[in-house]
Amino acid sequence: MLIQLLRTQLRPYRTWLTLVVALQFLSTLAMLFLPHINAKIIDQGVARGDVGYIWSMGGVMLAVSLGQILCSVIAVWFSARTSMGFGRDVRRQVFHRVGSFSSREIAQFGAPSLITRGTNDVQQVQMLVLMGLTMLVSAPIMMAGGIIMAMREELGLSWLLAITVPALLVTVGFIISRMVPGFKVMQVRIDTVNRILREQVTGIRVVRAFVREPEEKARFAAANEDLTVVARSTGRWMGTMFPTVMLIMNVSIVGVYWFGGHRIDSGEMQIGSLTAFMSYLMQILMSVMMATFMLVQVPRAAVCAERISEVLDTDASVRPPVAPVTLEDPRGMVTFDGVGFAYPGAGDPVLTDISFTALPGQTTAFVGSTGAGKSTLVDLVPRLYDATAGAVRVDGVDVRDLDPEALWSLIGIVPQKSFLFSGTVRSNLQVGKGDATDEEMWAALRVAQGEDFVRALPEGLDAPVAQGGSNFSGGQRQRLAIARALVRKPKIVVFDDSFSALDVATDARLRRALPEVTSESTVLLVAQRVSSILDADQIVVLDDGRIVGVGTHHSLLEECPTYQEIVRSQLTEEEVA
Amino acid sequence: MSTTANKPAGQMKQTERVVMGGGPGRGGPFGGGQVGQKASDFKPSLKRLLRRMAPDRARIAGVVLLGVVSVAFSVIAPKILGHATDLIFQGLFGNRLGAEHATKEQAVEAARAAGDGTFADMLSKLDVVPGVGVDFGAVGSVLLIVLAVYVASALAGWLQGWFVTDVVQRTVSDLREEVEQKLHRLPLGYFDRQPRGELLSRVTNDIDNLSQSLQQTLAQLLTSILTVVGVLGMMFWISPLLAVISLAAVPLTMIISKQVMGRSQGLFVEQWRRTGALNAQIEETFSGHALVRVYGRLPEAEERFAEQNEALFKASFGAQFVSGLIMPLMMFVGNLNYVIVAVVGGLKVASGSMSLGDVQAFIQYSRQFTQPLTQVASMANLLQSGVASAERVFELLDAEEESEEPAATGGPGVTRGAVRFEDVAFSYDEDRPLIEDLSLDVQPGQTVAIVGPTGAGKTTLVNLILRFYELNGGRITLDGVDIAGMQRRELRDRIGMVLQDTWLFEGTIRDNIAYGRPSATEEEILEAAKATFVDRFVHSLPEGYDTVISGDGGSVSAGERQLITIARAFLSDPALLILDEATSSVDTRTELLLQHAMAALRSDRTSFVIAHRLSTIRDADLILVMEDGRIVEQGSHVHLLEADGAYAALYRSQFESAVDAA
């Protein structure tokens, strides 16, 4: 997954990638060249007392250093550009893909998970690319180059490499193999500790009311101890890493001296090569270390890449029609014709065989217990989901044959959770209608019973709205969401349990004012309170995804046992009768 | 459990958190991979943090001592190794000269005669015996010493790492424990005032960050500083001239890192700002996905996203590029140093004023020199972020606590449940009085229904009975005893509570019910479950009472969660009961069960019910109608209807239409 994601996403950056590799190669070559020149200075300059040679070779070294930094800097420039560009591209694609999703895919992933995938996960992979381009690219070059140079410098000692490099790999690998499971356990335990703290903070009233502080303390202390134990052992392994690596390096240096000394004595080797060989050995070992550390990051990034790919590989289940039908003079009549809906893979369908017609100028209400499928039902109208059986029609045309934009322009929807966008009251109402005038906005607010509190705000329509609308009360948010739907003067209005946060008096006033703007619209109303639907022209009673009754309050009270049960649970027996 | 308040941490599933890894603490090898919040008061906070390590004084002394030993050994080793170079070098010359000259003096003479003065100078300084090759006995013993020194250094390093881990983990563990205990001593008002996400972030993210930065910096900072000092000392010992030249690299390094870091810090701030803005937009668009689509705002959202995304790209490119420069630049300084040492050292060896072994050793030192310098700089950054976190945790620890508890009074012997409010005054905020002059008399066994609009003070009233908040005036008595004089636990032991917010912890259904009374037997738990209809739905769960309730609900519906909280209160068998009736989104069947369960719970107990259901209100012995923190009416249903006041109006608006229609 990781490799595939990188391959497809990095394709546009091929030229830059090649440049980075080339530049890193040059830079590494320069790094490798320095000890070689140094060896020459010793062998041909120092050992012969040739000062001129020392100076001229010093000049060469300086030039090589300058060339090296030049290559490095340009490489960093291209690496940063490539990796950040990669991140930008992936983020854009995730955003675009999620935008095309229907509510089904959103529900399947969960909005919070999609947010993490689009932000954090991309960030992780992007950093891996950056580090890969700077470290992972240069490590093998450094290693191969180091080995070649070392062997060129002194073939007779190269067997030392054959011992030290694997020794380092094995040791570092062993320590890491000890650390990684530790880190995993640690993360789980950190989560547990944090979960308990979160529970304590959110449930502080319950903890105190039941006087369970001692138990909570004990519960936390145990979790904390568990965490500390594993953190300590992992930390100790981590602490072993550096001294161990240094020890291996240092022991190999001693080896170079001992065996190199003998070769120098027998005239097979020059003394300058000793220094050079040592430098190469160091560089090789460093590159092994770098590569190992890098590779530790890979599994984490691989998980992220997989989660990103999941999003990018998911196709939207709701797609616009190839040849959309246009409605000439839309009136907003909604017809359900044998509609069924089931989540893919789920056993029981959410909706089965739903048929009814909601007429313009009338209110059609939906009641039923939670999980009866009320919200899903109304979501089928704007194609947030597509029916899996039968058809949903608007003015007789299957919604799947309509241009989505045109369909949506007919609908005003007030969701269960009154979600506001950050911005201003004005910008939120303009979500409903982009070119709404102030008069239109005030009119919508008046009907939604929001005029008074918006007028009371010092900035009026331009009052700021924080993210999620957190600076407004639940009731105010709900009224703004209603106004947002009304301002577009929709042919079809969907209220999904939209009056729950309103107090009774406001609820009543709002329902009295509604006909002002909805007299010609089809109103679809999902409700919990029986009192909110008494005046509905048509009430559809749902139970377990099926229609068990259609009629008015009075007719249903006589004929529909489920409706009677619902009414009875909310009013007392004698009041029902 | 409500997780809406703590957006980033709370909403993420656990698997996602694992992937995300540990918060803001990871600096990464690029230095400045994070901005690091700056501590506003760095020094006092750092001191306070260090003071917390005082119990580990012995270990800390060990850490320092071992650090010194480890660094000293690793620093001294190249110098000893230099002797080996010299021995080999001399042996080499011995071999070379042996063929032509009998003694060293002859060889020097010969060189001078040949006009090679420099060579002669160098040679004269060498301890060369012509004809004698490398003395491998001497070389061997030098190398053995070096080996021993390196091993000792590694051992000291291991031990040091061990101790540091222990100290850090103990300190952090204690801090966590202390924070948790503090939570239980904070007044409830503190939790009201602090945004929940912010508080949670302090007790989780900040402590995690602190732990990581301490673990990463403490040992390394010490080692790095010691290494710089030690290496510098050795360099001066070998050659003051070369040392001074190398030292010139220090200000150069400082200037470069300061420049680069200062610049990248700004760019990183910009990057995180842009990231935050983009994340906010992503979060908003994804959360409001259905709305964005239906209202046709997707093209606009994409356009805005593209802009923000491009801005983030520019900012992060800048940040990564500039911070990525630090490594090559440092390497360049190192190389520059290397070149100078190689040339000047070569010249000095050639002139005989320095031995080749020393140059050799010096090169090794100068390589060791720049690296820790860079490390110190990035460690300092990391430490700063850690201390900033510590500061935020300390702020929590310093928050004012609940008032002291009186010694156990025993309270009233057997609780009958008579509650009196006498001229009670209370406000959350001094400037805005909420409850004033509130008096109330409730007989044992009575059911009190509290009705009124949102914000009227209904919840506050019942919170005062639990002594979640302290009164500003007046007093509340339970069976004639002032509750302010009782220990909180004495008081709360007698009270059961069911809140609208159904708080359950992650654990089995059994454990959650038993939370009401941990000493309860299995039979008692079952009995409570049966009485409150929990038993009925538990039977349909495959794992029964062992079903684990997870944070996001899962197998248990909202109504069923509420039933469990009722069972919990039932099990605790309180004399006094506080109920906040839930009305939201519970299906009709569960709703009926809930009503019955609540009724079962209320029988024979004094109960305060924040009531929404008509049946509860009508059957209550006493109805309190609250408005703006005052009780505007009290009495029975019939009585209040006759009075034709606020209650009558409320009743009519809420229920009458339904009743008429029926």
Automatic annotation (TrEMBL), chain A:
It comes from Nocardioides jejuensis. Gene3D superfamilies: ABC transporter type 1, transmembrane domain, P-loop containing nucleotide triphosphate hydrolases. This is ABC transporter ATP-binding protein. Its main location: membrane. It holds the Pfam family ABC_membrane. It is a multi-pass membrane protein. CDD domains: ABC_6TM_Tm287_like (cd18548). It comes from the Bacteria. SUPFAM superfamilies: ABC transporter transmembrane region (SSF90123), P-loop containing nucleoside triphosphate hydrolases (SSF52540). Residues 334-569 form the ABC transporter domain. GO terms for molecular function: ABC-type oligopeptide transporter activity; ATP binding; ATP hydrolysis activity. Residues 19-300 form the ABC transmembrane type-1 domain. Keywords: ATP-binding, Cell membrane, Membrane, Nucleotide-binding, Transmembrane, Transmembrane helix, Transport. The chain crosses the membrane at residues 12-34, 54-78, 127-151, 157-176, 241-260, 280-298. It is found in: Cell membrane. The keyword Acyltransferase does not apply. The keyword Electron transport does not apply. InterPro entries: AAA+_ATPase (IPR003593), ABC1_TM_dom (IPR011527), ABC1_TM_sf (IPR036640), ABC_transporter-like_ATP-bd (IPR003439), ABC_transporter-like_CS (IPR017871), P-loop_NTPase (IPR027417), Type_1_exporter (IPR039421). GO terms for cellular component: plasma membrane.
UniProtKB/TrEMBL annotation, chain B:
The chain crosses the membrane at residues 58-77, 136-159, 221-250, 325-347. Residues 20-35 have a biased composition (Gly residues). Keywords: ATP-binding, Membrane, Nucleotide-binding, Transmembrane, Transmembrane helix, Transport. The lineage of its organism: Bacteria, Bacillati, Actinomycetota, Actinomycetes, Propionibacteriales. Residues 419-653 form the ABC transporter domain. It holds the Pfam family ABC_tran. Its main location: membrane. ABC transporter involved in fatty acid import. Transmembrane domains (TMD) form a pore in the membrane and the ATP-binding domain (NBD) is responsible for energy generation. Belongs to the ABC transporter superfamily. Lipid exporter (TC 3.A.1.106) family. It is found in: Cell membrane. One of its GO terms (cellular component) is plasma membrane. Gene3D superfamilies: ABC transporter type 1, transmembrane domain, P-loop containing nucleotide triphosphate hydrolases. This is Fatty acid ABC transporter ATP-binding/permease protein. GO terms for molecular function: ABC-type oligopeptide transporter activity; ATP binding; ATP hydrolysis activity. Residues 61-385 form the ABC transmembrane type-1 domain. It is a multi-pass membrane protein. PROSITE patterns: ABC_TM1F, ABC_TRANSPORTER_1, ABC_TRANSPORTER_2.
